[in-house]
What does this fold into?
Amino acid sequence: MTRYVLPLIVFAGLVALFMVGLQHDPSKVPSPLINKPLPKFVLPTVHAPDKVVASTDLQGQVTLLNVWASWCVSCRYEHPVLMTMAHQDNVRIVGYDYKDTRDAALQWLKQRGDPYSMVLFDKKGKAAIDLGVYGVPETYVLDRHGIIRYKRIGPITPDFLDKTLRPIIKRLKEKES
Amino acid sequence: MRTVAALLFALLLAYAAAPVMAADMPLQFKDPAMQQRYEQLLGKLRCLVCQNETLAVSEADLAQDLRGEIYHMMANGKSNKQITDYLVARYGDFVLYDPPLKRSTWLLWFGPFLLLLIAVVIMIRFIRSRRTAEDGAPRSLDRDRLSRLLREQGGRH
It folds into this structure.
């Protein structure tokens, strides 16, 4: 009996293993920065070249740090979702313009709307190396103390917003109140 | 005629842009030993954008930035370990083509040996079971049947 059942069990095990394995996206590399403080940086903003913002300025409330660029195609799909969040969700969204030009970024915000409370400007993408950014869009969820609690690689889709992002934001806010 | 002129102009522009690209040439150490160390180190690091390429060969934008970063760290006297630690802190162990030996990679390192061990155990058990089957076989045949079989065989020849 085991002679016939055992290979079947082994086969079923392999199928389960492959099914789980194939659902992982290898292009999404887990960040080692989860549960660590946001790396230090000082950056100007897109709107005010003279003004500088430090990473510590993002502390104080639950914040989304959304890395984007005007040349990024997936950011176009993501942008309406961010606009929805800006209207419906009570959460601060800080933009992080990656390897872009000021003009193109301002043009983008004018055309598509501006969901951000401010937009950091990293022209050379050097500070982004400390953040471990390796593609745009990427979104970091920071708690009130500026600790990175979650990282989304790729665009925020409506589905992801409902099923994952909103519960995370809710949980972080509840923990703090 | 106008399109031809426009095309020629575009071509001219393309050539004019070439020196700008040349300025983006890969960084090189003058000291050949340093250059060799630099290339070896880059060959052991994975580009996160195109994951099957090393930092040494990848054309991705980020790979170029990271090459520059590593170049400057080396020029500032940083050791290979300091540089890889710097990258691992930002991108995780994934940047290393040689995964480090630690608890979460035990299965990766020792898994194949575990499979080999299981295979050997199965093989030994299989061989043993066959051997006992062979040992027992003649005893289970009775003489009458054996001689009948031999007779039948003899008859056929």
User: Anything to note?
Assistant: Chain A has one domain: 31-176.
